[in-house]
Task: inverse folding
């Protein structure tokens, strides 16, 4: 029997908290909001990323199709991104030999977008400030063909172990793993005169974009956490910008819809570093909406609209947000 992706969920989804619903209705009006609610009832697609350090996308596709998996490649410009439409057995995705050998990484489609936007190149010096469990670190290493240097940081030892395991499984050899508070690491690197061509700040967030795959987000969500996380995110990006080379690029990303954790952070950067940092337009292989410039009683700078909002019902993905900054030379 073949198991198909994107079926309706067998058990009913939890009821969103009233304040969360109210806020999403402010972001998505009328029919748009109803489409959002409908996609939450469907399981997310099974997506994987070919690890080009070990195998080509075409060879991986052939191997998986021999297992009777149905594989599609939704983006012509990124053949490494694959959707597993059907699979022989439930749970096989994480147990397949190709996964154990590091030929592919199980990664949600929207989660791949920050590295696509960052465009790391061979021989770059890259900082992945909030790196665990390693999906984006291994993606960066693959794009750099194991050249240059990546510093992959996380403050939590349990997550560091997973990060180390994933980089080893994927054959990553250009990465130094550090266990440090993000602010402290950036301050130390600045004192040592170590600066970066590319920086990824995939910040800890409230996870509003992960409701399709994580029921616990419904229960854990609260407005106090949103506001606390906003302060943490400002601190992280403030520290990271100080170690970005002239002409260097930084991606800020979250898997949430909350403007306090998204556009407010972008506005903070553009205001504080107005003579040093500019926001860049991003071209993505998915439908992206511009960042908003007004939220409740706050108004943001016009350039904030160059950031990208990824909604689940626009692309059949999880929700995401990203913005790209460049240090003025």
Result:
């Amino acid at each position: 029997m073949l198991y198909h992706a994107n079926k309706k969920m067998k058990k009913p989804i939890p009821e969103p908290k009233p304040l969360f619903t109210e806020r999403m209705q402010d972001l998505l009006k009328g029919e748009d909001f109803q489409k959002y609610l409908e996609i939450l009832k469907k399981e997310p697609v099974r997506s994987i990323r070919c690890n080009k350090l070990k195998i080509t996308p075409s060879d991986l596709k052939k191997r998986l199709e021999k297992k009777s998996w149905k594989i599609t490649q939704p983006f012509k410009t990124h053949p490494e991104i694959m959707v597993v439409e059907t699979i022989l057995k439930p749970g096989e995705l994480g147990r397949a030999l190709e996964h154990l050998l590091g030929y592919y990484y199980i990664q949600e489609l929207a989660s791949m977008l920050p590295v696509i936007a960052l465009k790391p190149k061979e021989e770059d010096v890259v900082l992945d400030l909030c790196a665990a469990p390693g999906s984006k670190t291994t993606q960066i290493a693959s794009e750099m063909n194991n050249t240059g240097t990546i510093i992959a940081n996380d403050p939590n030892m349990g997550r560091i172990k997973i990060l180390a395991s994933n980089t080893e499984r994927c054959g990553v050899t250009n990465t130094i793993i550090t266990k440090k508070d993000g602010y402290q690491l950036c301050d130390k690197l600045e004192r040592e005169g170590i600066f970066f061509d590319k920086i990824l700040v995939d910040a800890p967030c409230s996870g509003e974009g992960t409701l399709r795959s994580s029921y616990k987000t419904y229960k854990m969500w609260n407005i106090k956490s949103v506001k606390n996380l906003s302060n943490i995110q400002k601190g992280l990006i403030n520290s990271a910008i100080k170690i970005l080379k002239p002409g260097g690029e930084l991606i800020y990303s979250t898997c949430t819809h909350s403007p306090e954790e998204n556009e407010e952070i972008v506005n903070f950067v553009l205001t504080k570093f107005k003579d040093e940092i500019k926001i860049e337009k991003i071209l993505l292989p998915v439908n992206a909406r511009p960042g908003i410039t007004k939220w409740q009683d706050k108004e943001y700078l016009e350039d904030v609209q160059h950031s990208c909002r990824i909604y689940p019902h626009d692309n059949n993905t999880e929700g995401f947000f990203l913005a790209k900054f460049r240090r003025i030379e």
Remarks:
- The chain has three domains: 11-39, 46-106, 111-327.
- DSSP finds 13 helices and 16 strands in the chain.
- Residues 111-327 form a domain with the Rossmann fold fold (CATH 3.40.50.150).
- The first helix runs from residue 18 to 27.
